[in-house]
Amino acid sequence: MRPLLPLITAFLLAYLFAGRAGFLGGVLILVSVVFLGLLISALSGPELVELSDSFGEIAGRIKNLVRRAGLRGVSVYVLEDYLPNAYSTGKKVILSLGLFEVLDEDEVLGVVAHELGHIRNRDTLLFPLLAYFRIFAFVFPFVMWAFTGSFLAFLLYMTLYIWFEAERSRFLKGREFRADDFAVRILDVPMSLKYALEELKNYEDLMVRVKKGINPGIEPKIERHGRGRTYRKPGIVFFPTHPSYEERIFRIVPLLEELRSRA
Amino acid sequence: MEPHEFKLTEDGIRAVLPPLEAEIMEYMWRARVATAGQVYEHLKKAHPDLRRSTISILMNRLCDKGLLSRSVDHGRGGMRYVYSVTTSREEFERKVVQRILDALMSNFREATYAYLSQMRKL
After folding, report:
1. What is the Cα–Cα distance from A158 to A10, expressed in whole angstroms?
2. A52 vs B: CB within 8 A
3. B101, B54, B90: which is closest to A207 by C-alpha?
4. How many angstroms from the chain centroid is the CA of residue A247?
5. Nearest CB to A101: which of B18, B20, B56?
6. Residue B49 distance to chain A (closest CA, Å)
7. What total of structural domains would you count in chain B?
8. Which of B53, B77, B81 has the CB atom closest to A199's CB atom?
9. Do the domain assignments include residue B79?
10. What is the per-residue pLDDT across A209-251, written as a single tens digit (0 to 9) for each?
11. CATH number of the structural domain spanning residue B45
12. Fewer CB within a 10 Å sphere, N or C end of chain A?
């Protein structure tokens, strides 16, 4: 895991700058951040409804998909939110209610398969840890500045933080691709993930246009004018954690071709 | 819903709503309550390239405008969003006329009076 390299370097430098106290101080801060993070995530969370048989045929199809993924103890929940969204945590897959409105059944299964890919690849354990490490990597430069009184040490640690961000971004994007790879292998209709991504891309593009008020009478066409800002993303993202929809679709297409030629 | 624009070249509610939103409202005034999926299936006949996401966004936009309201239905088939009309077509049209006349009266009071009284005589 390359994101660990800047952290290991930070601990080595802490030992060089402040000896054993610096090193142990770093360990203490890291453990505290992880502990607090776990505590907060255990105590908070949105209200979820378990996807039961009352949801109709799709509930059975999702159960089959989980079985095909070779996973046990996975539960699927629905979150009351009109924006289409899906994520996984631990062994839970959470789908927003808006997702069912925007995608058809096969496409929802495509999204679930992607989330199952995250669970299968243990990303649901790794991602929170990386989030805690990120807080540590940001806080530690200030702690070391206060501890050593050296602005040079602070600048050095901030450089390590930027290095960590770059590695984290690359790592997380790679995990998204891996989850996609897993998804297309377990889907009855492998193309459904591609269709889901296209629909979600369309959603984001239209939301931007609606919010900007560019075209209030949106016509049912996909017109993409360059790479504008996308919905729910700030204009400047130095270290994106997710590949763009285009990047994902671009990778899925040859993978589908490969799977088809093998079949 | 307070219309802010009136397009002189458009017919019916298209004069105050974008074309696809107008079509959604025409369907909704007939159905009164519907899911975005039902609206999509209906409009897809006339617009084969239409996407589910487009309908979802526009229906939520109509909610923001106060013409539709969204609620969660827990009936058979699990949870789902259903949309209901908040105003009748007649009431909507009445509000449009009222808003336009108010705007004319505040901007062109004499000319509006003159024209209305001329119309009354006819």
Report:
1. 10
2. yes
3. B54
4. 15
5. B56
6. 6
7. 1
8. B53
9. yes
10. 776 654 433 333 333 334 344 444 544 566 777 888 888 888 8
11. 1.10.10.10
12. C
